Q: What sequence folds into this?
């Protein structure tokens, strides 16, 4: 089955700087890669996703890049703000239609004011 | 936040006891999921269901059971066979199909052992 590795497990950046979180996946058949954000005490929420037919997707200050050959994808947050502090999870899903997402172990991002 | 409701928010289990966590959704979603969240281990899939009266084991199904008698409901039972049940449990739902993969999560249940 799919295995997703996520790094780093913790990340601290100065407010205004950029943050990058990286994930690798094992199943070359995976074709859908979402990122979820979980603020303290709250439920995870989807912030951005990418499919295997594109290499990059942006939404305001966040972007995701995908390298299918290397089987890795990354989340980029620019101009970080205190409200970006949260745990971020990457995930991958195979295209065999079983609707099952495999999550990474999470990155706790702390924005230092 | 609405749409998917978990109860209770906190639950305590005595040794040898089975406990059931409730998950209800009014989003008309076909698929429902149960995840277990432990510190440093991310979200691990316990069971999932894509249609009423059918469900599949996830990656850590041992010691758990589920049912899907109604589209809106997907209760999870933590049995006495689960030796390390203390964790935060998240229920989620989604549409089925390539363009509808977004998971909607409930607010979670924290299960602790007495």
A:
């Amino acid at each position: 089955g799919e295995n997703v590795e996520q790094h780093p497990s913790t990340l601290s950046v100065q407010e205004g700087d950029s943050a990058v979180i990286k994930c690798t996946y094992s199943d070359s058949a995976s074709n859908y890669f979402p990122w979820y954000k979980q603020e303290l005490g709250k439920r995870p929420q989807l912030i951005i996703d990418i499919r295997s037919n594109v290499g990059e997707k942006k939404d305001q200050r966040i972007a995701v890049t995908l390298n299918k050959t290397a089987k890795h994808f990354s989340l980029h947050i620019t101009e970080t703000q205190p409200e970006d502090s949260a745990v971020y999870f990457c995930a991958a899903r195979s295209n065999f239609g079983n609707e099952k997402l495999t999550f990474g172990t999470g990155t706790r991002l702390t924005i230092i004011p | 936040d609405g749409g998917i409701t978990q109860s209770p928010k906190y639950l305590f289990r005595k040794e040898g006891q089975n406990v059931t966590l409730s998950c209800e959704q009014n989003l008309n979603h076909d698929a429902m999921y149960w995840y277990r969240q432990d510190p440093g281990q991310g979200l691990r899939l316990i069971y999932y269901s894509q249609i009423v009266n059918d469900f599949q084991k996830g990656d850590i199904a041992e010691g758990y059971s589920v049912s899907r008698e109604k589209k809106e409901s997907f209760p999870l039972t933590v049995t006495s066979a689960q030796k390390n049940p203390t964790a935060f449990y998240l229920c989620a739902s989604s549409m089925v199909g390539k363009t509808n993969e977004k998971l909607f999560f409930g607010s979670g249940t924290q299960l602790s052992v007495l």
Q: What stands out?
A: The radius of gyration of chain B is 13 Å. The CA atoms of residues 41 and 75 of chain B lie 23 Å apart.
